[in-house]
Amino acid sequence: MKRLSRGLAIIGVPLGAGLGLLALALAQNETETPRTLPPPQLSTQLPPPPFAVTPPLAEAPVITIASQPYRHPSGAFTVPYPDGWQIDESEDSAQFTTPDDIGQFSVAFALAESAPNGDYESDVRTTWGDLPSFALVEIDSSLLPDQWSATFTFDQSLPPDNITVRVVGLAEYLPRERVLYIFTALAQSPARELLMPIFQSIAASLQTDPNAALSDSE
Protein backbone atom coordinates (compact mmCIF):
# COMPACT_ATOMS: atom_id res chain seq x y z
CA MET A 1 0.00 0.00 0.00
CA LYS A 2 1.18 3.51 -0.77
CA ARG A 3 2.24 5.93 1.92
CA LEU A 4 0.18 9.09 2.21
CA SER A 5 1.82 12.45 1.82
CA ARG A 6 0.48 15.27 3.94
CA GLY A 7 -0.85 18.04 1.70
CA LEU A 8 -1.67 21.11 3.77
CA ALA A 9 -5.12 22.33 2.80
CA ILE A 10 -5.11 23.70 6.25
CA ILE A 11 -3.87 20.47 7.70
CA GLY A 12 -4.46 17.19 5.97
CA VAL A 13 -4.14 14.50 3.36
CA PRO A 14 -6.62 12.79 1.04
CA LEU A 15 -8.24 10.17 3.23
CA GLY A 16 -8.97 7.90 0.27
CA ALA A 17 -5.30 7.17 -0.30
CA GLY A 18 -3.90 3.93 1.15
CA LEU A 19 -1.91 4.05 4.37
CA GLY A 20 1.44 2.29 4.22
CA LEU A 21 3.94 0.98 6.72
CA LEU A 22 7.48 2.17 6.02
CA ALA A 23 10.73 2.39 7.92
CA LEU A 24 11.58 5.91 9.14
CA ALA A 25 14.84 7.76 9.47
CA LEU A 26 15.03 9.76 12.70
CA ALA A 27 13.64 13.26 12.06
CA GLN A 28 15.89 16.22 12.74
CA ASN A 29 13.63 18.62 14.63
CA GLU A 30 14.57 21.36 17.07
CA THR A 31 11.73 21.20 19.58
CA GLU A 32 11.40 21.29 23.33
CA THR A 33 12.36 18.08 25.11
CA PRO A 34 9.38 15.92 26.14
CA ARG A 35 9.02 14.76 29.71
CA THR A 36 9.94 11.14 29.02
CA LEU A 37 11.62 9.40 26.12
CA PRO A 38 11.13 5.78 24.98
CA PRO A 39 14.13 3.66 23.94
CA PRO A 40 15.09 3.94 20.25
CA GLN A 41 13.58 1.20 18.09
CA LEU A 42 12.86 0.44 14.44
CA SER A 43 10.35 3.01 13.26
CA THR A 44 7.09 2.65 11.41
CA GLN A 45 5.07 5.52 10.03
CA LEU A 46 1.48 6.34 9.30
CA PRO A 47 0.56 9.83 8.14
CA PRO A 48 -2.04 12.06 9.76
CA PRO A 49 -5.65 12.31 8.73
CA PRO A 50 -7.02 15.56 7.28
CA PHE A 51 -8.18 18.28 9.63
CA ALA A 52 -9.83 21.58 8.77
CA VAL A 53 -9.52 24.27 11.43
CA THR A 54 -12.21 26.90 11.97
CA PRO A 55 -12.75 29.55 14.66
CA PRO A 56 -14.07 28.13 17.98
CA LEU A 57 -17.71 28.42 18.88
CA ALA A 58 -18.90 30.85 21.53
CA GLU A 59 -20.80 28.06 23.28
CA ALA A 60 -19.61 24.48 23.80
CA PRO A 61 -21.70 21.97 21.84
CA VAL A 62 -23.47 19.08 23.54
CA ILE A 63 -21.76 15.81 22.64
CA THR A 64 -23.46 12.43 22.97
CA ILE A 65 -22.12 9.05 21.90
CA ALA A 66 -24.01 7.24 19.15
CA SER A 67 -26.04 4.24 20.30
CA GLN A 68 -24.12 1.89 17.98
CA PRO A 69 -20.34 1.98 17.53
CA TYR A 70 -18.72 2.30 14.12
CA ARG A 71 -17.31 -0.91 12.64
CA HIS A 72 -14.82 -0.65 9.79
CA PRO A 73 -15.90 -2.58 6.66
CA SER A 74 -12.79 -4.76 6.95
CA GLY A 75 -13.74 -5.75 10.50
CA ALA A 76 -10.30 -4.60 11.64
CA PHE A 77 -11.65 -2.30 14.36
CA THR A 78 -14.77 -1.07 16.10
CA VAL A 79 -14.93 2.29 17.85
CA PRO A 80 -17.59 4.47 19.51
CA TYR A 81 -18.14 7.93 18.08
CA PRO A 82 -20.26 11.02 18.86
CA ASP A 83 -23.67 11.46 17.28
CA GLY A 84 -23.77 13.78 14.27
CA TRP A 85 -20.05 13.70 13.47
CA GLN A 86 -19.01 13.29 9.85
CA ILE A 87 -17.49 9.89 9.02
CA ASP A 88 -15.00 9.40 6.19
CA GLU A 89 -13.46 6.00 5.60
CA SER A 90 -10.85 4.37 3.42
CA GLU A 91 -9.74 0.77 3.06
CA ASP A 92 -7.52 1.06 6.15
CA SER A 93 -8.81 4.01 8.18
CA ALA A 94 -11.82 5.97 9.38
CA GLN A 95 -12.03 9.61 10.40
CA PHE A 96 -14.65 11.34 12.56
CA THR A 97 -15.00 15.14 12.45
CA THR A 98 -17.06 17.54 14.55
CA PRO A 99 -19.83 19.39 12.66
CA ASP A 100 -18.04 22.70 13.33
CA ASP A 101 -14.54 21.41 12.42
CA ILE A 102 -13.03 22.27 15.81
CA GLY A 103 -11.76 18.73 16.29
CA GLN A 104 -11.50 15.23 14.88
CA PHE A 105 -10.16 11.77 15.57
CA SER A 106 -9.19 8.88 13.35
CA VAL A 107 -8.24 5.22 13.52
CA ALA A 108 -5.86 3.76 10.96
CA PHE A 109 -4.13 0.43 10.61
CA ALA A 110 -1.29 -0.97 8.54
CA LEU A 111 0.31 -4.37 8.15
CA ALA A 112 3.89 -5.35 8.86
CA GLU A 113 5.82 -8.45 7.84
CA SER A 114 6.67 -9.01 11.50
CA ALA A 115 5.32 -7.73 14.80
CA PRO A 116 5.45 -3.90 14.87
CA ASN A 117 8.28 -2.57 17.01
CA GLY A 118 8.65 1.05 16.09
CA ASP A 119 10.39 4.23 17.06
CA TYR A 120 7.09 6.00 17.58
CA GLU A 121 8.57 9.28 18.77
CA SER A 122 10.36 9.68 15.45
CA ASP A 123 7.13 8.85 13.66
CA VAL A 124 5.29 11.66 15.47
CA ARG A 125 8.11 14.12 14.81
CA THR A 126 8.33 13.17 11.14
CA THR A 127 4.56 13.36 10.66
CA TRP A 128 3.87 16.60 12.54
CA GLY A 129 7.22 18.23 13.27
CA ASP A 130 7.29 20.59 10.29
CA LEU A 131 4.16 22.43 11.42
CA PRO A 132 4.57 25.91 12.98
CA SER A 133 5.67 25.93 16.64
CA PHE A 134 5.43 22.16 16.90
CA ALA A 135 6.20 20.84 20.38
CA LEU A 136 6.16 17.28 21.67
CA VAL A 137 4.66 17.81 25.12
CA GLU A 138 4.55 14.42 26.81
CA ILE A 139 5.34 10.80 26.03
CA ASP A 140 3.98 7.73 27.80
CA SER A 141 5.91 4.56 27.03
CA SER A 142 5.01 2.81 30.29
CA LEU A 143 2.68 0.34 28.55
CA LEU A 144 5.12 -0.81 25.86
CA PRO A 145 5.10 -3.09 23.95
CA ASP A 146 1.28 -2.92 23.88
CA GLN A 147 0.75 0.85 23.73
CA TRP A 148 2.72 4.06 23.23
CA SER A 149 1.20 7.54 23.30
CA ALA A 150 2.21 11.17 22.97
CA THR A 151 0.60 14.59 23.20
CA PHE A 152 1.82 17.43 21.01
CA THR A 153 0.87 20.94 19.94
CA PHE A 154 1.35 23.21 16.94
CA ASP A 155 0.05 26.54 15.64
CA GLN A 156 -2.48 26.99 12.85
CA SER A 157 -3.41 30.19 11.03
CA LEU A 158 -7.12 30.58 10.39
CA PRO A 159 -8.31 32.26 7.19
CA PRO A 160 -9.29 34.86 6.19
CA ASP A 161 -7.62 36.97 8.91
CA ASN A 162 -4.74 34.57 9.67
CA ILE A 163 -5.63 34.36 13.35
CA THR A 164 -3.27 31.92 15.06
CA VAL A 165 -4.88 29.10 17.03
CA ARG A 166 -3.05 26.46 19.03
CA VAL A 167 -3.95 22.88 18.10
CA VAL A 168 -3.55 20.05 20.60
CA GLY A 169 -2.90 16.52 19.35
CA LEU A 170 -2.94 13.02 20.79
CA ALA A 171 -1.38 9.99 19.08
CA GLU A 172 -1.64 6.43 20.37
CA TYR A 173 0.24 3.55 18.74
CA LEU A 174 -1.20 0.09 19.36
CA PRO A 175 0.87 -2.83 17.98
CA ARG A 176 -1.30 -5.94 17.59
CA GLU A 177 0.44 -9.02 16.21
CA ARG A 178 1.45 -8.02 12.65
CA VAL A 179 -0.87 -5.01 12.58
CA LEU A 180 -0.15 -1.50 13.83
CA TYR A 181 -3.15 0.61 14.83
CA ILE A 182 -2.83 4.37 15.28
CA PHE A 183 -5.43 6.50 17.04
CA THR A 184 -4.98 10.21 16.35
CA ALA A 185 -7.01 13.10 17.78
CA LEU A 186 -6.79 16.84 17.15
CA ALA A 187 -8.60 19.72 18.84
CA GLN A 188 -8.32 23.48 18.69
CA SER A 189 -6.97 24.68 22.02
CA PRO A 190 -10.22 26.45 23.09
CA ALA A 191 -12.01 23.10 22.73
CA ARG A 192 -9.33 21.06 24.47
CA GLU A 193 -11.10 20.66 27.81
CA LEU A 194 -14.30 19.61 26.04
CA LEU A 195 -12.89 17.23 23.44
CA MET A 196 -9.75 15.62 24.87
CA PRO A 197 -11.51 13.67 27.66
CA ILE A 198 -13.95 12.38 25.04
CA PHE A 199 -11.12 11.41 22.71
CA GLN A 200 -9.30 9.59 25.52
CA SER A 201 -12.45 7.68 26.45
CA ILE A 202 -13.03 6.73 22.81
CA ALA A 203 -9.42 5.56 22.46
CA ALA A 204 -9.79 3.41 25.58
CA SER A 205 -12.92 1.81 24.07
CA LEU A 206 -11.34 1.03 20.69
CA GLN A 207 -11.66 -2.67 19.84
CA THR A 208 -9.19 -4.14 17.38
CA ASP A 209 -9.28 -7.36 15.35
CA PRO A 210 -5.87 -7.92 13.75
CA ASN A 211 -6.99 -11.24 12.28
CA ALA A 212 -9.69 -9.44 10.28
CA ALA A 213 -7.13 -6.87 9.15
CA LEU A 214 -4.77 -9.62 8.01
CA SER A 215 -7.56 -11.54 6.25
CA ASP A 216 -8.74 -8.41 4.45
CA SER A 217 -5.23 -7.83 3.07
CA GLU A 218 -4.96 -11.29 1.51
Describe the oligomeric state of these chains in a short phrase. Answer: single chain
Can you say what the CATH homologous superfamily of the domain at 70-217 is? Mog1/PsbP, alpha/beta/alpha sandwich
The rounded Rg comes to 16 Å
Label the structural class. alpha+beta
Shape: globular
Approximate strand percentage: 25-35%
Strand order of the largest sheet: 3-4-5-9-8-7-6
* Global mean pLDDT: 78
Would you report the number of β strands? Answer: 10
What is the terminal-to-terminal distance? Answer: 12 Å
Biggest pleated-sheet summary? 7 strands, antiparallel
Structure commentary:
The protein is α+β, with helices and mostly antiparallel strands and 218 residues long. The chain has a domain at 70-217: Mog1/PsbP, alpha/beta/alpha sandwich (Protein Transport Mog1p, Chain A, 3-Layer(aba) Sandwich), CATH 3.40.1000.10. The chain is built from three helices and ten strands. It has a seven-stranded antiparallel beta sheet, with helices on both faces. Strand 4 and strand 5 (103-111) form a beta hairpin. The protein starts with 69 loop residues before the first strand and ends with a helix. 37% of the residues are buried.
